[in-house]
Every structure is written in structure tokens, then in C-alpha cells.
Amino acid sequence: MKLNLSIATDVNPRTRPIIDGSVEVDGVRLIHTPLDPSEMFWRQLKFGDFDISEMSFSSLIKAVARGDDTWVGIPNSFEQGLTPRQVGLNEVFAENTLDQ
How do the pLDDT tens digits run along the chain, 100 residues long? Predict the structure, then answer.
């Protein structure tokens, strides 16, 4: 039985292998939602709609500065020079799943 995880990403060459299934995660079924980055960041920060999502570093820093410690940032690549993109991992998911 696979663990179902929701994931939101932009559609681009970096995320295409996740979307088309050519890259899989053992024991996990990724349920993908393609979104424009601004909508994705807003939905994730406002509602926590996804277990995993891309998130801009600046959005993550702003949330942490406001006292929101819900998110764990995992750097996954660099675009536009030294502007890191982040993957946001819902802390509730992390606490309940990664320890198992």
C-alpha cells in the first residue's frame, strides 16, 4: 500500500519527470496539482493545501519572520543566479510520517 501525498508544482522541465511519472518515490503515490507559482505559494501559506509544494525562499522567510514555523524549507535548485527555490514540507506531515 502506497502513501498518498499531495504535491503542487509549476509545470516546467524540472518538474516534468514528477508530473509524467518518469521519476517515482518508492512507497509513495504523488497526487500532483499544477499551479502558477503565485497561487501555489498563497494557497500553501494561507491554507496548507498540499503535503509538498514549491515555495519561494522570500515567501518562506516572510512566514518565519511572522512567527509561522509550520514549514520546513528544503533547497532543491537555483534559478536566476543565487535565488534559491524551496520545497515546502508541511510540518504536520513531517512529524506524522517521517518518524514512521
Answer: 999 999 999 998 888 998 998 988 899 999 999 999 999 999 999 999 999 998 888 888 888 899 988 888 887 655 554 444 445 555 555 555 544 4
DSSP state of 23: S
Q: Which CATH number fits domain 3-97: 3.40.50.2300, 3.10.310.30, 3.40.190.10, 3.20.20.70?
A: 3.40.190.10
Q: Is 69 helix (H, G, I), strand (E, B) or coil?
A: coil
